[in-house]
Structures are given as structure tokens and as C-alpha cells.
Amino acid sequence: MSIENNLKKIKATLPEDVTLVAISKTKSIDEIMEAYHAGQRVFGENKIQEMEEKWHQLPKDIEWHMVGHVQRNKVKFMASFVSLIHGVDRLRLLKEINKEAKKNDRVINCLLQIKIAEEDSKFGMSEEDAQNLLHSEAFAALKNIRIIGLMGMATFTEDEEQLNHEFQRLKIFYDKLKSEFQFTVLSMGMSGDYPIAIKNGSTMVRIGSAIFGERNY
Ligand SMILES: *Cc1c(COP(=O)(O)O)cnc(C)c1O
Fewest CB within 10 angstroms: 46, 91, 180, 198, which? Predict the structure, then answer.
């Protein structure tokens, strides 16, 4: 299957109000351009420098999302162009993003990453920590970032019941905060679990291998 066919097939199954972020990490400029020519404009990477290199080389109407864990000292490399940072998990990082956004005279959209998987390896905040952050004065003082929703990564499993449970829990938390904080984005679902994420209310899916094929690291 070609990248174009994969994209078309996936797009056909997505509800209209669900945004597809094509995760292009490790993929070449040619492969990304194939998706671009098939109409895809939103791409996601998990390494800041790789995203910056691709941003330089690719058409400027691409919307770039950072979906990986973010190191504070690298925020400056993406602050001028990133459209959404999915993996925000601490106030210190938000402060850095705010500082770099201000230097670039812009407001950067962010999602708080909530830990929903049972594995220790997945990053993210507890619901309690997220709530405390959102209600803090330190957060209220940050004028150059906007938290527009939540992101979560489920356990790597084929156990549908467990996936349903993890996504459902994040959706309930999202709904609880939605009106107070004017959230519009619930980022959940990857190649292996996005149909289940959508069933549970995802508004944004992050799909890599089902579009571009398996990654060779
Ligand atoms: C790599 C990655 C994805 C996409 O994974 P696939 O299984 O290839 O669809 C989604 N979200 C994050 C945070 C990732 O790092």
C-alpha cells in the first residue's frame, strides 16, 4: 500500500470533526511530501531538532505538532513555528514555553499530557497535578501559552476492554474541565488503538505507522 492509499483509507474512517496528525518521525522528506501531495497538512514529530530540520525543508503551510517528551533547553528551536505541543507535563516546562513564545511575539497552544497507561514508561501528569496546575496563580500569569486540551497515551496492548477503560477515564476528566478552561482538543489514539479512542470521544488522533509503514530506527 502507498502512503497516499493508507491516508485515504484512514481518512475515510475518521469522523469529520476528528483531526488527523500524521506522525512522521524518522520518515524522509520524500515520504512526507507524498503525504503532503495527498492533501495532508498536519504532521507530528517527537524530536525537536528533527522537526526543526524538516520544517526548514518543507512547505510552510504545514502545521507542525510536537508529540514527544520536551526538554526545556530545546524549546527555543521550535518556538517560532510549532502549532501545538502535546506533551506538556510540568509547570517549569510551561514557563519555558511561555518565555520562548514571548520572544517570538506569539501564543503557543499546548496540551497537558495525562498519564492513563499502567506502564511506568509513559510520561504524563496525574489528574490531581493537572488540576492543581490549571488552578495555580503561576499558570494564570503565563500569557504566551494557551492550554487547549489534554493528551494521553494508552497502554500498548490489544486488550480492548483495558483500552476502552483508559480512554474513557481521560474523556471523563476532559469533560470535567472542558467548559471551565474552554478546551477544544482531546488528543488520544495511535495506529493500533485509534478506532477505540474515537469511540471514546477523541478529537485528534496521532497516526504514524499505519500511514507511513513501520519505522526502522
Ligand atoms: C510515535 C508516536 C505516535 C504514532 O505511533 P504509531 O503507532 O506509529 O501510530 C503517536 N503518539 C506519540 C506520542 C508518538 O510518539
Answer: 180
